[in-house]
Amino acid sequence: MTVIVLRSAGGMAQEFIADRYAAIRGSHRQGGQGDVFKAVDLDSGKEVAVKVIPGTKDAVNAIFFTRETDALARLDHPNVARLLDKGFDAQRGDYYIVLEWIPDSLTEWLAALGEPPGWDDLCETIGLPLSSALAHAHANGVLHRDIKPTNVLWDGHGPLLADFGISKIKNQVAAPGDATVVDHASTPYAPPEKVTKAAANRDVHGLAATLVRCLVPYELRNYADISRALSDDVDGIDVPEQVMDLLKRCLSNDPSNRPKDGQVLDLELRKLHSNRSRKWRAQTEMAVNLTTKARTQLLKARADSIPERSIETL
After folding, report:
1. Are residues 255 and 111 in the same domain?
2. Is 146 an annotated catalytic residue?
3. Which domain holds residue 306?
4. Better pLDDT: 282 or 170
5. Is the confidence at residue 150, as pLDDT, over 80?
6. Nearest Cα to 266, choosing from 152, 174, 139?
7. pTM of the model
8. In a domain? residue 125
9. Which of 94, 146, 178, 203 is catalytic?
10. Which of 84, 180, 265, 274 is 20 to 30 A from 7, comparing alpha carbons?
11. Coil, helix or strand for 127?
12. Residue 193 included in any domain
């Protein structure tokens, strides 16, 4: 990619996009379809992420740009990366996509933990927010097609589904070069079957594989690593039986065994988590015998309630 120097500051070359976004030196990262870097929006003064896709004669790059911007324009969810601006910089000859600047991905979040989280914490912090985001995407006809840890950002509070470069709008007629775009999906997060049509359950596989990666201390480099994680061996994940059943169905080589889309997966995951939370609360209940003094004090504080029940909120 050719760097165009539009201005200079203090004798140092300064790179700009669309004469509006000033790149911050040293922040460039190579992405799947182009460079991503941190920049300052000269209009607002805010820091943003700018993704630059070379505007070559190869039609595939135009497809990457159109797919990602079309998909993000359809979505409005707290756990989906937000599109701020897009366009084509004629002077550079590059497409650009502007998003909120989020420095970390799920990979950095995992590294900071030091060891894999337990299932319940992972489900609440990562699993449910992402399944909700995927349900939203599928409900709006958007198939991501490349869900993996590096395509999930971490903003310090929760995960954001990002990088829709090879996404597809469901029921949209396939564009020339579509098969080439899908080839960019990452094994083993993409399922093994050959792509014959737009199938939402491919995203289900990707999300489940991403959750499994969070539960093991090793990289998932191939399908054998997924089988290893789902096995009873010492390297296998430690999750409740019902959770293991769901993950195995999501990661089945037979697409018909998987939940059909993100909405179904989200419902199943929420039901499992709710049942486990209810069971945990029931196990932590204990009998309390109140002294006369304690009972009198509770009655004064809450005259309209039963003291033994009031203790539940203390």
Report:
1. yes
2. yes
3. 286-314
4. 170
5. yes
6. 139
7. 0.82
8. yes
9. 146
10. 84
11. helix
12. yes
Boundary (domain end) residue, out of 100, 116, 149: 100
Residue 21: φ, ψ to 5°: -105, 115
Using a CB cutoff of 8 Å and minimum separation of 24, what contacts does 153-158 make?
153/81, 153/102, 153/104, 153/105, 153/106, 154/102, 154/104, 154/105, 154/106, 154/108, 154/109, 155/102, 155/104, 156/104, 158/78, 158/79, 158/125, 158/129
Q: Are residues 149 and 65 in the same domain?
A: no
What does the pLDDT look like over 29-67, one tens digit per residue? 776 667 899 999 999 999 999 999 998 767 788 888 999
Angle (CA) 132 151 125, round 5°? 45
Q: Which residue has the higher pLDDT, 132 or 167?
A: 132
Element (H, E) at 41: strand 35-41
* pLDDT digit string, tens, across residues 202-250: 999 999 999 999 999 999 999 999 999 999 989 999 999 999 999 999 9
Q: What does the block give as tokens for 303?
A: 């005259």
